[in-house]
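Quick log. Single chain, no ligands specified.
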Amino acid sequence: MHNKYKIIILAALAILSAALFIGYDLGYWQYTLPRRIEKVAAIVLTGGAIAFSSVIFQTITNNRILTPSILGLDSLYLFLQTFIVYIFGSTNIVIMNKNLNFLLCVSLMIIFSVLLYILMFKKAGKNIFFILLVGIVFGTLFKSMSSFMEMLIDPNEFQVVQDKSFASFNNVNTDLLYIAAVIFTLLGIYVWRFTSIFDVLSLGREHAVNLGIDYDRLVKKMLIVIAIFVSVATALVGPITFLGLLVVNLARELFKTYKHTYLMMGSLLLSVIALVGGEFIVEKVFTFSTTLSVIIDFAGGIYFIYLLLKENKSW
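-> predicted structure:
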């Protein structure tokens, strides 16, 4: 089957999932309908941000195991939130004004992404073990520092931090929905211009440089884009570690192509189907006895181990 038809089928499934989630058992629709639409919009933005950031990150690292979450970028976002509460308190305008808080965290994430580029990509080259090791160390370090500061702060402020620390599709941060939608749309249009360049970049650094691509400058730009995408996803629902790994690799298996036009669109649609369809099953079938993030992280963790063992055999 041609990849265009696969995209159409996935788009139809994504729309069907969204329609089912919004329209099923509406009850008092004047109250229920707007909230469900907001929730689906937040899920679509989260899924799209995770999918795009994961595809781009795997392309610039030239490895299908690594994602921004595995490298600890979402842990960094939560650490920054904890740090801001620790320094300013939960009643400060930086915390109370969610848009200001979000923009401040995005700015700090951009600064970190530039440092990440200098430390890991410019000096370490393509050493995948080094990148993976540093990512795990960073993730653990940020989580440990967050836990340490949470023990020192006031219980009320601790609750504020906890609300931001766990992925929850029942408590979507709708205050950031509009600014997140604007940022995601602008970034999506921006990165879409690079899809053909990503095709060349996936050949590796040497081939890309030989074919005339300014590799270092492009990687630096894309790390900043990835940091903003991760901030959008984490700010809306919290961290979902293995979603990017799952949907991007599923898209690669499904489309069997190097073209990022299909990989990015396919990953986005698979992400929306997984999140909206999964949340519908969790709410209506499991009646909230578990959470979607737990199911995704469980399946993703197993798949991550499988990929590691598979790569190990190939070496």
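The chain has a mean pLDDT of 79.
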